[in-house]
Specification:
heterodimer; A: mainly beta; twelve-stranded parallel sheet; elongated; B: alpha+beta; six-stranded antiparallel sheet; 7 helices; globular
């Protein structure tokens, strides 16, 4: 028994990265330099530990070493304060693979919060990104911003005040966003031009739009789809849109709960939707004209399963709202479709359609009527959706 | 232990002496070991690039050069040098980046004039090692006698040639890669044949450093002569040099879909009628990167005209607006047929 134990211990020891080191950083006058040096000099397997306290930082931080963990002492304990940031487009930039970021906060970055680009198998765990003045068009665009990556796990983060999206995943594959809170952003959670994404057990509240899944043209990575949006609490997304004009989310209507636009094979199921005054669920084609031949602007194979709706579109930010409300008896049914592409909803789901016949020409030609689409045929294929399971192991501790 | 090391060093020195006696190598002042071995030299002097470090007088084998259209860096003077290792030769690669083999070093010193005197701020080196290119920043001391490795970068107050007081940013080692990164590797940006003069390239060939002067060399206008240059060429060269190291496929801003390289011919890829993707407040209320005929409603010029982080482009290496560059790009957009 004894022998077997010690053999196991030896095996464990050799499996661990050789000479993994811990770099301890504390707040103080030289924190910017000490922290950035640690991020540069770290070796794969190392851990950078940020003691509790407020770090006043003037420049963006960046990490380009594989397999590093950056760990603070809690999202309310370790605070990276970028209020006086004087350079860089984000608070923290990660460009290496297998990185774990956990248990710290960023406040008031001038641009984006944490961006990871081409950073495969990244874990964002129990982080907070806050623009402390609340919704404001001059806040940074994205709070948590992984892009062009395969393997993304966002678990237990909280983002407030982003002038674009709180949690944004773009041009990526194998994604899970869960157990997170997106509050008072323009878009709470956004999955853009990405495949195989699971968005579950999140709270999206007081955003302009709660959870958005869509594809845009003219980007290097195209063809988003295979997305599951399930078991989320999408409540009171009623903040007036404060995005700077020109951005795609500036067109999001105040009061959008879950929106699916120009995407393939999306399941929206088991969510609780309450207080989303334009549309608890909206399924639409890309609204603009476009040139990109690779782009499919339609929602395809979108399935709205069982959800709990506490009311529908009671104060829609739509042209002709009064007429619409009158026509539907004072409140729009919870599911709104523009009539383009393909949609299935489970029996008993109330909805309405604009019955558009052409993409990219606006709402002209809309002939609203109650939704009449078929029920889903067969089970939704969830295989391959979500972050690789091995990323979960990094949440321990 | 100490004794053993000393003995080993002595043995090495002896072997070296033997080698010298056998075949006298050309005199080389540059410390190839500093360029090639794994570490990060702490001091700029360790490389031996200069006979007089403070005066920036290079040793033989280290050659000064200039770019026709340079990157704007808050008005800094830039002293550029290239070191060719013994037994190697540079190879032309069409109009593009000259192929510089392992052992090469590129050296760029940033300086500002202060009270009539040149003050050296930082020297950035790009070292071509077996493992690829490595970018390192060195920060000059006040005495101007030495520059010290500053992997975490630095900030210092200085006054630009236009009299603007700024907090100047020396990039950290990772930030070097933000601009020099391409498909996951670090690569040089400046020494592309299209941005080097025929004269300089000819001298390099005559001295045996370079195999040939490529066709399509020397295409970019000389920046000081931009007034008499073709406007489109001046603007496109400016965008290539100042923006396209990030805004191109495989580089830091690839996800924007904007491609500002000189060779890009698609108006959409260059931003005409292109909507922003992740610009946030950088869009400034505008709908498109470039609106032909209207620089005032183009995001490209809006971001160039801002010094504010989160809006300003480029994101790194810029504390002040390049009015001359902005002017050229504005005029180029103005003259585009709507």
């Amino acid at each position: 028994m004894m022998t077997r134990l010690s053999i196991a211990a030896v095996l464990l020891a050799t499996a661990a990265p050789a000479l993994a080191a811990t770099h301890n950083i504390a707040p103080g006058e030289n924190a910017q330099q000490e922290l950035q040096e640690a991020l540069i000099l770290a070796e794969p397997g190392d851990e950078i530990v940020l003691a509790a306290g407020r770090y006043v930082l003037t420049d963006g931080l960046s990490l380009d070493v594989d397999g590093v963990t950056v760990r603070g002492e809690g999202m309310d304990g370790t605070i990276l304060d970028f209020t006086t940031q004087a350079g860089s487009g984000e608070g923290m930039l990660v460009t290496s693979d297998n990185v774990t970021l956990r248990d710290f906060a960023l406040e008031n970055p001038k641009g984006d919060g944490i961006k990871s680009k081409g950073a495969d198998n990244i874990v964002y765990h129990r982080l907070r990104v806050t623009w402390t003045r609340g919704p404001h068009p001059e806040n940074g665009a994205y709070g948590i911003y992984p892009v062009e990556s395969t393997g993304v796990l966002v678990d237990g983060v909280k983002v407030t005040g982003a002038s674009d999206a709180g949690i944004y995943v773009g041009q990526s594959n194998r994604i899970t966003v869960r157990n997170s809170i997106a509050e008072a952003n323009v878009a709470g959670i956004e999955i853009e031009n990405s495949r195989n994404a699971l968005v579950e057990h999140n709270i999206a509240t007081r955003n302009t739009g709660g959870i958005l899944v869509f594809d845009l043209p003219d980007l290097p990575v195209m063809g988003g789809g295979n997305v599951v949006v399930a078991n989320n609490l999408v409540v009171a997304n009623d903040t007036p849109n404060f995005a700077p004009p020109g951005n795609i989310v500036a067109g999001v209507r105040r009061g959008t709960g879950i929106m699916v636009m120009a995407n393939d094979n999306v399941l929206v199921e088991d969510n609780i939707l309450s207080g989303n005054p334009t549309a608890p669920i909206m399924v639409i084609a890309y609204t603009q004209s476009f040139e990109d031949e690779r782009y499919n602007p339609f929602p395809r194979e979108v399935v709205v399963g069982e959800n709990i709706y506490d009311g529908g579109g009671y104060d829609p930010q739509l042209d002709g709202a009064d007429t619409l409300l009158a026509a539907f008896g004072g409140e729009l049914p919870p599911v709104m479709w523009d009539g383009l592409g393909s949609l299935a909803v489970v029996e008993g789901t109330a909805g309405w359609s604009l019955n558009l016949t052409e993409q990219g020409v606006g709402l002209e030609g809309a002939q609203p009527s109650p939704l009449a689409v078929s029920a889903p045929s067969g089970d939704f294929d969830r295989s391959g959706i979500g972050a690789p399971a091995e990323l979960d192991a990094r949440l321990d501790g | 232990m100490k004794k053993a090391a000393v003995l080993a060093a002595a043995a090495l020195a002896f072997a070296g002496a033997m080698a010298v006696r056998a075949t006298p190598p050309p005199i080389n002042y540059v410390n190839d070991d500093a360029i090639m071995s794994d570490g990060m030299p702490r001091l700029l002097s360790e490389y031996g690039f200069f006979t007089d470090l403070g005066a920036q007088i290079p040793v033989p084998h280290v050659y000064p050069y200039r770019l026709n259209t340079p990157l704007y860096s808050d008005g800094a003077d830039k002293l550029r040098f290239v070191y060719r290792a013994g037994g190697t030769q540079f190879r032309a690669n069409g109009e593009g980046l000259i192929d510089m083999p392992v052992g090469t070093a590129l050296i760029k010193t940033f300086a500002f004039e202060e009270a009539g005197e040149r003050r050296l701020i930082e020297t950035r080196v790009l070292l071509h090692r077996d493992s690829g290119w490595l970018a390192l920043p060195y920060l000059w001391n006040d005495e101007q006698t030495e520059a010290r490795l500053a992997i975490a970068g630095a900030r210092l107050d200085l006054t630009t040639p236009k009299g603007e007081a700024i907090s100047y940013r020396v990039p950290n080692k990772n930030q070097c890669k933000e601009c020099h990164g391409l498909d996951g590797e670090v690569v040089p940006i400046g020494p592309k044949a299209r941005n080097l003069s025929h004269d300089w390239l000819g001298e390099m060939v005559a001295a045996g450093h370079l195999d040939t002067v490529p066709r399509d060399a020397d295409q970019f206008p000389v920046w000081e002569h931009r007034a008499s240059a073709d406007l489109t060429a001046a603007a496109r060269a400016y965008l290539d040099v100042n923006c396209a190291h990030c805004h191109r496929p495989g580089a830091m801003a690839s996800n924007s879909g904007l491609d500002l390289r000189w060779e890009q011919q698609s108006p959409e890829a260059l931003g005409v009628g292109k909507r922003p993707v992740a610009a946030g407040r950088g869009a400034g209320g505008h709908l498109y990167d470039i609106v032909p005929g209207s620089p005032d409603s183009s995001i490209l010029t809006y971001r160039m005209a801002s010094p504010e982080p989160g809006i300003a482009m480029p994101e790194l290496g810029k504390a002040t607006v390049d009015e001359e560059g902005l002017n050229i790009v504005r005029r180029w957009i103005e003259e585009m047929a709507p």
